Amino acid sequence: MPAPIEFFFDFPSAYAYFAALEIDELAARHGREVRWRAFSLGTAFRLTGAQPLTRVPLKSDYTALDWARVAQQKRLDFAIPEGHPHAGLPALRSFHWIDARDPGLAKRFALEVYRRYFDGSLAIDDVAAVIETAAGLGVDREALASGVADPELKAKVREVGEEAVSRGAFGVPWVIVDGEPYWGWDRLPMIERRLAGD
Predict the structure, then answer these.
(1) How many domains are contained in the chain?
(2) CA separation for the pair 84, 82 (Å, rounded)
(3) Is 13 a known active-site residue?
(4) Which family, according to UniProt (predicted)?
(5) For the chain, which residues score pLDDT lower than 70?
(6) Which residue segment(s) compose the domain that 54 sits in?
(7) What pLDDT was estimated at residue 20?
(8) Among candidates 71, 61, 7, 15, which has minimal Cα distance to 35?
(9) Among the options 13, 60, 94, 121, which is catalytic?
(10) What is the pLDDT of residue 196?
């Protein structure tokens, strides 16, 4: 079997959200699986000196317009949350805790977090709200609450971020196909052509 496609993402990124909606189906069309890897983009920003798009003059206005266009095309309820971007460490840690037990459920959790963050109904930096979101998918509240507070899990999240940066990630979505990196939701057609052998 070919190696899984690696999909590095962070919850405050709408472009990563758009990619998350497509990446598994794209891979499945070519007999591939996807390994979802959540990390804090802040790790890369600290190294590169970059900032979130919505905090950069001119880029922020264009980004808001572009996200709205893509969301409309995808028929998504979409609004940039007040105070965006939120760091979202509770969501990242919850994803990793769930992923260690059930990767399929972790993907469903990630998609639900994305949907609710970008429709304004979830603060991804609110531990209790994130746990409730997971509980709505059948995750044990108490076990998850204990898990996200575990220093070993916190270290794991940091390690994934450091690994992503060590492998070149400076933005999300960051997709690695057979060792070759692709940055951006708009690179998915290029990934598809590669997988098709074009």
Answers:
(1) 1
(2) 5
(3) yes
(4) Belongs to the GST superfamily. NadH family.
(5) none
(6) 5-196
(7) 98
(8) 7
(9) 13
(10) 93
